[in-house]
Protein: Cytochrome P450
Amino acid sequence: MESETERRKLSKNKTKKGRDKGILRDRADENECERQRERERMHQPLGLLFELFSDFLKYLPGAHRQIRKNLQEISAFIGHSVEKHREALDPSSPQDLIDTYLLHMEKEKSNPHSEFNHQNLIFNTLSLFFAGTETTSTTLRYGFLLMLKYPHVAERVYKEIEQVIGPHRPPALDDRAKMPYTDAVIHEIQRIADLLPMGLPHIVTQHTSFRGYTIPKGTEVFPILSTALHDPHYFEKPDTFNPDHFLDINGALKKNEAFIPFSLGKRICLGEGIARTELFLFFTTILQNFSVASPVAPEDIDLTPQENGVGRLPPAYQIRFLPR
Ligand code: HEM
Structure:
């Protein structure tokens, strides 16, 4: 696994050629129709530009500069928190990640090449903030919009909640294995939400041959997860919300190898387990206690995401949570 410092160093070294060839399609032989669908999904110009060329755009005026400013503010906030941790640190009883990291920094202080330094502590904490909050909440926001659009699905989830959990106790993680329909719905929400269509940028650490292309060392590569999540070879109706994509003929949960919203490989999402747990518990707890309603008729609900380059955000919508 390349280190954070290495990742940033390599990122600075990326060549123009590297950028041009950096975006790989998952399937070289896809037909024109599929390509069109992909273009539509990826057509989110401003955010996409920022994601691809953030190093260059920082020199130009525009709204994107606010992103940098906001990040600096959050970093300063985390820096302040690190100082408070430092003051209260009890080496015999570390309280959290920052405490543990500080102790490790102390242990490695004589190693000038250690990755455990102040800057990486700030970056790691910042990454966890973003990666751990915006992701699950955005997926849930998409999920509830889909429940408004497809009320019969919400109704079936509620029936399963009634059967397996009932009204008197909160959902527990053990319930998930007994609730294949709900689990399939959550999988399908994640597939349609397509939260990070381009995944996160990676750097190839050595010259790499891939389907006739040579990708030079140091090239930035975006693994386009969206193509897998909408691959018609794996999903019968790739652009339609249909929980059956994840159910077999007996109604049991069906795994699908193209379901890769968390990416795959060595740098697969670190939080996959916690994210799947959160999605299940929040989704079922809310639907156990509330039905959802919209001022807009289901057929008029628009699922088109807001323009955004890095992640896909659901459009703003109104929802009513009615106590059961
Ligand atoms: C629905 C929820 C989530 C989705 C769809 C998601 C998706 C992803 C994806 C696609 C990546 C990029 C992997 C790669 O580089 O190939 C990633 C990385 C990461 N995610 Fe998540 N994520 C979610 C929730 C979370 C949560 C809850 C946490 C932490 C509590 C988390 C922590 C991370 C971290 C730390 C990384 C970087 C891992 C690395 O670079 O080694 N994620 N996530």
Observations:
- The CA atoms of residues 246 and 254 lie 5 Å apart.
- The longest helix spans residues 118-149.
- The pocket of protoporphyrin IX containing FE is lined by residues 127-128, 131-132, 135-136, 139, 195-196, 199-200, 261-263, 267-271, 274-275 (CB under 6 Å).
